[in-house]
Amino acid sequence: MGKPGRDLHLGPPGEERVADATLEPLCGSLPHSHITLTLALRAARGCPRRDHRGAVGRQDSAGRAAGTALHTSRPIPVVASGREMVVLSVPAEVTVILLDIEGTTTPIAFVKDILFPYIKENVKEYLQTHWEEEECQQDVSLLRKQAEEDSHLDGAVAIPAGCGNGADDLHQMIQAVVDNVCWQMSLDRKTTALKQLQGHMWRAAFAAGRLKGEFFEDVVPAVRKWREAGMKVFIYSSGSVEAQKLLFGYSTEGDILELVDGHFDTKIGHKVESDSYRKIAHSIGCSTNNILFLTDVTLEASAAEEADVHVAVVVRPGNAGLTDDEKTYYSLITSFSELYLPSST
Predict the structure, then answer these.
(1) Residue positions in the annotated binding site for substrate?
(2) Rounded CA gap, 28 and 229, in Å?
(3) Annotated binding residues, as ranges?
(4) Which of 43, 101, 263, 310 has a beta carbon 3.0–4.6 Å from 13's, enabling a disulfide?
(5) Global pTM?
(6) Average pLDDT in the 15-30 region?
(7) Binding site, annotated residues for Mg(2+)
(8) What are the boundaries of the region Disordered (predicted)?
């Protein structure tokens, strides 16, 4: 898998005691005895350990670093309120949490089974209703330009230029746009032209109450706690910034845009390119190692890691499976509640 990862961690296995100032739980306090016991048990079992660049070592009572130590590569199970959970300590240098959406904050099923089907099922009606509006015409022009660029591709659907005002001509043109949109979506394309029309359609649907953004139940409570702890929270998704804001502005939790400090989409760069994360850090005004990126896609995690960003891979129902190497290499969480922030005291 290449160079060592930048896993988040609780500390070295076998450590005698976790100092009171080491962790600040996001969802209630955990007895240190349970954490210490689990660490000792893992050490006794000979659990694999790795050295990681960016690892946070133990701290003395004054909070000074006591050196970087080997630590477990996986989240550590602890017992809280009678149940087992895993926890990951967020490095003290992290001040920004960067979130993916699909498969991380929001079920993939919501995107694939609700958002995208809505486009296919309603694009014709939307075009017929908004055809004369300038915004709609701009969307069509952009799609037509994209269709010209795609003319060499198998199955590409051309969009003819307007050559008449008759009802038949209008029907033919609208149908061509519909066919082009469905063709692009069948290939899971993410062209600017397609995303722009989708964004405008979703805006109308969210505003009319036909759609509401969905989030995993742990997301909003955790984000609130992060912000209360002084963390900044940003979104980085392949979906347009406008679509992101719709999801957070018209959600089942109400308007939660206030919980997000800013949004990034692929205009800043593709998510599998490490330079995108450097640009994001520059835009935010921080160093890349001040950022923790949460995503369900390991290619994105790898790109972020190359830019010296801390990463954790989010495992959710419906997400693509991970290889054994990926499970070993990356820190994995199944809920945002499994993240622990450095104590501010």
Answers:
(1) 237-238, 271
(2) 14
(3) 100, 102, 237-238, 271, 296
(4) 43
(5) 0.72
(6) 36
(7) 100, 102, 296
(8) 50-69
